[in-house]
Design a protein that fits this description.
There is one protein chain. The chain is 0% helix and 45% strand. By secondary structure, the chain is an all-beta fold.
Length: 136
Amino acid sequence: MAKTNNVYILPQDNRTKTAILTAAKASQANITDAVKIAAGGANGSLVKSVWALPRDTMAAANKLSLYLYDGATTYLIDSVLMAAYTYAATTATPTTTFAKATDATPIYLPSGWGLYAGAATALAAGIAVSALIEDY
């Protein structure tokens, strides 16, 4: 039986990208009011982790959504509920982590596609959403 040669493609670069969400996203069915976090690398990328932090007081809980966008179609891939938060110099800002993207189960981001995030409720100071990405 003939053997197939395996070619290992190792990560070429790691990067952390951040987007600031300020507007309310009214629908999860399109990319309107979502903010681009990152584009897929030249040979595709793996999204290893995505997390969010409010940049100021957020009076009520806020739903955050994560999308893949290929230039024509919006794919909803994850959603989390960020708890209400009151800014104070004596308290840490809580981190809300999206569950789907992990080291064990990364999200594949093809070349030419974008990773986007949106918030259900506007926050003038914004919500920082960051992603740890490996480019191939």
